[in-house]
Amino acid sequence: MSRHHVAVVGAGKIGGMIAALLQGSGDYQIKVLDQSVEALSALDVPHVTTEALDVSDLGKLTGALKGCDAVISAAPFFLTPVIAQAAKDADCHYLDLTEDVASTAEVEKIAEGANKAFAPQCGLAPGFVSIAGYDLAKQFDSLEDLHLRVGALPRYPTNKLKYNLTWSTDGLINEYCNPCLAIENGELTKVPALAGLQHFSLDGVDYEAFNTSGGLGSLSETLKDKVQSLRYLSIRYPGHRDIMELLLKDLGFINKRDLLKEVMEDSIPVTMQDRVLIFITATGMKDGRFQQKSYSHVVNDREIMGKHWSGIQITTAASICATLDLLMDGSLNAKGFVKQESINLDDFLSNRFGGLYNNGGSDHETPGRQIAA
To answer: Is 80 exceeded by the pLDDT of residue 261?
Structure first.
């Protein structure tokens, strides 16, 4: 059987795992593009090809994508529009991981009249959480509240923030600084980041959650006029939000994001020992009664295909790889703009890549043609 040719833009932590999963499945031939020769050289994925390229150059990128069936963007959010336009010009499917609301709006415009599918926001949040949240929402006759909570947390926190860097620092800072889409009293609105503090416990461990930007994706439009309260919140250990509010608001780092990034990357260590928490609650009317239903899930760092991966790498890469798989096998609309909540939760979890959300089974999973254990 012929393999699908896919370009992955971005040779970072997430891009590397995407390339490893797809190449390791045997059904994809992967080319990784990045402007950093150093990042490409550090890429430890057998049998992929690499190309050093200024991915901000539309003409050069379009040329590099010619002949590809799809392109996956694991690049910074500010490169999203040019990569999406290059995908359209090269006539290949487009998928990305962005949480940035403005970038996604640009992708939706570019998708108009396209011959191929454009599926942004295919990561963990937005992405998997949109799929799981919408699945929960559909179980009610009428929906009152839907609150989506997600956190990538260190398993062994030691500093005052009780946090380690596990993914893009730029993305993290945007989450904490940008306005957050929400539905309140049935109206689509924007609420401030770091507000809306909640406290809860899971399996005997205390957590806090608060508004952050970008996690709702297109779900806010999909559920408009169908829910009274819709919110996305990031999960952290208690006390984290107060320190970030001090830094961003009282000390003014909200207007010095480059400096904050430098401080955080110099002072907060990276960890591969993390866990991803997903906790979704919905209330509404079902069978004539006011009910609440919840969905909770934890994904830990672990070894897959002989290599150790963090929980945020696993959940993010598995999500976009599962979306690509479902697109290629005809389960998704192969033309125009694709919303994550259009993916059926059971289809996602039974996919070989989506099945990596399951912590059970072997610690040495290989996402081949059979469903991953």
So the answer is: yes
Q: Give the separation between CA 357 and CA 336, rounded to whole angstroms.
A: 28
Q: Residue 122 in contact with residue 340, Cβ under 8 Å?
A: yes
Question: Within 13 Å and on the Cβ side, how many CA atoms surround 359?
Answer: 11
- Helix, strand, or coil here: 277? strand
Instruction: List the one residue out of 130, 122, 149, 168 whose CA is nearest residue 319.
Output: 122
Tell me if residue 350 falls in helix, strand or coil. Answer: helix
Query: How crowded is the C-beta side of 281, counted as CA atoms within 13 Å?
Result: 11
Structure tokens at 5: 């040719």
How many angstroms separate the CA atoms of 34 and 10, rounded?
5
- H/E element, 279: strand 274-286
Which of 227-245 are b and which e, b meaning 16 or more Cβ less than 10 Å from the residue's Cβ?
Answer: bbebbbbbbbbeebbeebb
| Positions of E strands within 86-195 | 93-96, 117-119, 142-154, 180-184, 187-191
Tokens of 289: 């009664």
What is the SS3 assignment for 372?
A: coil
- Average pLDDT of span 88-114: 92
Residues forming beta bridges with residue 291, ordered by sequence position: 284
pLDDT of res. 366: 43
The dihedrals phi and psi of 217, each to the nearest 5 degrees, come to 60, -140
pLDDT grade for 364, boundaries at 50, 70 and 90: very low
94-101 mean pLDDT: 89
Which residue in this structure is represented by tokens 């993390």? 274
Task: Reply yes or no on whether the pLDDT at 253 is more than 50.
Answer: yes
Q: Mean pLDDT across the stretch 39-58?
A: 94
Judged against a pLDDT cut of 50, whether residue 363 lies above it is answered with no
Q: Is 190 helix (H, G, I), strand (E, B) or coil?
A: strand
**Confidence check: pLDDT of 283 > 50:** yes
Neighbours of 112 (CB within 10 A): 10
Distance between CA atoms of residues 166 and 149, nearest Å: 17
